[in-house]
Structures are given as structure tokens and as C-alpha cells.
Amino acid sequence: MSFTQRALGVAAALVLTAIPVLPAQATPSVDAGDSSFTFGVIGDVPYGPAQVERFPQMVTELNNQDELKFVTHLGDIKAGSAPCTDDYFAAIKTQFDRFEAPLIYTPGDNEWVDCHRVNNGAYNPLERLDTLREMFFSTPGKTLGGNMPVKSAAEQGLPENVTFSKQRVAFSVINVQGSNNSLAPWSGLGETVPNELQLAEVQARTAADVAQLQRTFADAKKTNSRAVVIMTQADMFDPFMLSQGADANPDLVSGFRPIVEAIAAGSASYGGPVYIFNGDSHVYNDDAPLTPGSPWLGIYGVDAAENIRRVTVEGAAQQRPTSGCV
């Protein structure tokens, strides 16, 4: 799998070409020329009036990339200080509908979790999440933009959680949020600790995420998938959290622990290449967060998983073209 970052319009887009990557015990059965494909990943965009104004141009430029089989937006469709209004959501939905390639979107914390902030409008985050689901996921199993069949977790109340397969690569898109997976108190509403409704939502969503990951890895092993690709909004391995002392205080990222445990266990059982794509921390990064010696092993209490590669897409004001390959 090769990664190429291109500056397109408002911000950088990550364009990926998947090539045959097989578990060590598998026997190649698909010709490389017939099984490669390209898709795009964007996130944390548009931020601020200038990027909002240029966002239609970014959509147009992505539409001009004829090789893209689909595009994924990893969430945060607005700046963290911008109001969470219906009108703004509708304007972004209009642009999402312009995508000619299928668009898979997973919501970010800026458009619901953090909407309790006074400068966001002091909304109830759960009401904003319901609104996002009504506006962007009204037809479960149907992508935005161009149509591509996906399996939705709508029956579990999470229409934004989807799985699909492309050329024997298994994709799993799950709703994992910044702000410690939505465990930060709703201070804009006067809360100093997470309330009962907030905790119930986190528990239900996290359980659904874990179950989906377990199914994804089990199915990938059963069908001998060439790779597993996981996409989330949250950066569960954010270097900033290390600088804030997450190694000494794992509670700073406690909301991510069940997700990381499921990824580590599933990766070990599956054995083939696993790729995680996330946004949230804005700076392009390409690493292997669960290799031996990583501080994240102790923080999350998991065993090393050397078959995991993680990529953070650039977002917000970051526009530097970057590339990497393996």
C-alpha cells in the first residue's frame, strides 16, 4: 500500500493506492494489476471562513481525480470554535453530495461532541449527533456522493459505522471521537463531570465499535483478506497526549482503551497488514504505534502488534504535500 499526499484546493488530501499485501501464510491468487485501486482520505476540513469558501474547489479537484474509487472524510467538518448550526451542516452536506466518487463520512468531535462550548452555541452534543445522523445518514447503507454498497450498523443506532470490502481489502469505519472519546465534561453547559446520558452514549457506541472491529478481523481472517483498514476521527496515539503525561496518567486517553484493545487483539489474530487512518491531530504522521518499546503499549495495557501501520492525515491549516510508501 502506497501513500501520496497532495495539496488539493483547501487542504491536503491523502491519495492511496492499494497493492497486494498478503498475510505471510497466504498464497497470492490475484494478479497485482487486477487488484490495485486508489482512494482518497481527507479530514479536519474545512476550518474557518477561507477554507469554507474554497471547499467547493477541493471537491471539484477531487472529482477530477478519475482514479479514485472512493473518498473518506474522517470528520471535523468545521473549526472547533465555530457554531454547530443546522445551516452550516446543510451547506457541507450540499458539497458532500457533489462528490462523484462514493464518499464515506465519519463524524468528528467538532460537529457534535464539542458543541457544548459557548462559542459553538452551547448545544446539547447528543442532540447535535442526532441531527448529523438525520442529515448525513438518512439512508443507511448508502454512501454520500456516488453510490457504493456498504454495510451499516444502523440497527445498533450507529448508521455512520460502516464496513465494506474492495479487492479483498476489508474496511471498517467506526465512530471514535476526540475529547477522550467524548468523556470530557460538557463545560459549556455547566457540567464538571460526564453526566449519565453522556456516559450511556459513550458506552453504547464504544461497545458497537468493539463488536464491529471483532467482526471485521474475524471475517478478514476467514476470507483471507489482503489487509484490514480501520478509519476513525480520533487520534488514539496523539503525540500531544504523550507530552501531556499520558504515560504517567493513562486516564487521559481512557476512552480509547477498549478500541485499542480490540485493534491489538484483532490484529494479532488476523496476522496480516492492518492500517489505521485518523484525523484529529492535524499533522501528517506515518508510524507503527504498537511496536515493541512503544509507550502506548503500557498506556493501553496491550501486547505489541507489529503488523499495524497508522497514518494521520493533515488537516486544518496544514497544507504541505507529503509522501510515503511501504
What does this structure look like?
- The protein is α/β, with parallel strands linked by helices and 326 residues long.
- It has one domain: Purple Acid Phosphatase, chain A, domain 2 (4-Layer Sandwich).
- Helix content is 31%, strand content 22%.
- The protein is built from nine helices and 14 strands.
- It has helices at 32-35, 48-63, 86-96, 125-136, 178-182, 196-223, 239-243, 257-270, 295-300; strands at 2-8, 11-18, 37-42, 68-73, 102-105, 144-145, 151-153, 158-166, 169-173, 227-232, 274-278, 285-287, 308-312, 323-325.
- The strands form two sheets. Strands 6-5-4-3-2-1-14 form a seven-stranded mixed β-sheet. The protein has a seven-stranded mixed β-sheet with strand order 7-8-9-10-11-13-12, with helices on one face.
- Helix 2 (48-63) links the parallel strand 3 (37-42) and strand 4 (68-73).
- The longest helix is centred in the middle third of the chain and has 28 residues, at 196-223.
- It is globular, with a radius of gyration of 19 Å.
